[in-house]
Write a structure and sequence with these properties.
- By secondary structure, this protein is α/β, with parallel strands linked by helices.
- The chain has two domains: 38 residues, no CATH class; 198 residues, Rossmann fold.
- The chain is built from eight helices and six strands, in the order ααβααβααβαββαβ.
- The strands form two sheets. A four-stranded parallel sheet has the order 1-6-5-2. A two-stranded antiparallel sheet has the order 3-4.
């Protein structure tokens, strides 16, 4: 389909089905500027496993250096009601897939506010990988929310995306309803690498929507490093802050 035809069809659809802000219902916006202004973008980085701030070249605090995930970039707090509402409408019914763009822009805004040189270095040996979901959940939702975010980041950051190399091979209970110890057990051994040579010696940027205890990303990082990944950094829209 030509771009001119696609634009015309989109204009017609906007007239027939006008957009309304998913938060305040303001017309002509998927998410209006006023609602976006209520989101505080993180201007610092923190250890993924506690709330200690880390310096630009460090990804985690000294207490957690033994863990496999090398660091985490997250745009906002999941405690923010606007952020939480957007993510829930994105990944749960009514599954508003188009929210991937404004949610990705939150991450880009975060990266612009901090020292982001890591994304400009050695791009040939860097990959974006979405945290995978089981094929049954992908059929239910129609898409992998982490993959949609990763697609947008790939364009903005100029990094290659490999969407199907890291795979989830077992169904698990929803992590959101489990305690930390249960999450670790629930996610153990559920990921595999389809093409290990594609991972070897690479810096991996692992993309997900929400970072809570870190159990999922830590297990992904363990599997990726076992396959030869040099570094594994996490990227998330939001983090559920620790008490």
């Amino acid at each position: 389909m030509k771009n001119s035809t696609k634009k015309f069809i989109n204009k017609v659809l906007d007239i027939i089905f006008p957009k309304f802000c998913v938060i305040c219902k303001r017309q002509d916006y998927l998410v209006c500027p006023d609602c976006l202004s209520l989101i505080e973008i993180m201007e610092y980085r923190y250890c993924p496993f506690c709330q200690r701030r880390v310096m630009s070249k460090e990804g985690k605090c000294k207490l957690h250096r033994y863990l496999k995930l090398d660091g985490l970039y997250f745009a906002a707090s999941y405690n923010n009601i606007v952020v939480k509402t957007l993510i829930k409408k994105f990944k749960y019914q009514p599954f508003i897939k188009e929210l991937s763009k404004p949610l990705s822009q939150l991450i880009i805004a975060h990266l612009h506010s901090i020292d982001n040189k890591i994304f400009l270095e050695d791009k040939e040996n860097s990959l974006l990988l979405p945290v995978p979901i089981h094929k049954s959940k992908k059929r239910w939702r129609g898409f992998n929310q982490a993959e949609e975010i990763a697609k947008n980041l790939s364009i903005c950051l100029g990094l290659p995306l490999k969407a199907n190399n890291l795979q989830k091979i077992k169904k698990t209970k929803p992590q959101a309803y489990l305690k930390k110890s249960e999450r670790i057990k629930n996610i153990n051994g559920v990921f595999k690498i389809k093409n290990p040579p594609q991972i070897q010696g690479k810096r991996i940027f692992l993309v997900d929507d929400v970072f809570t205890t870190g159990s999922t990303m830590e297990e992904c990082a363990r599997v990726l490093k076992a396959a030869g990944a040099k570094k594994v950094w996490g990227i998330a829209i939001a983090r559920e802050l620790l008490n």
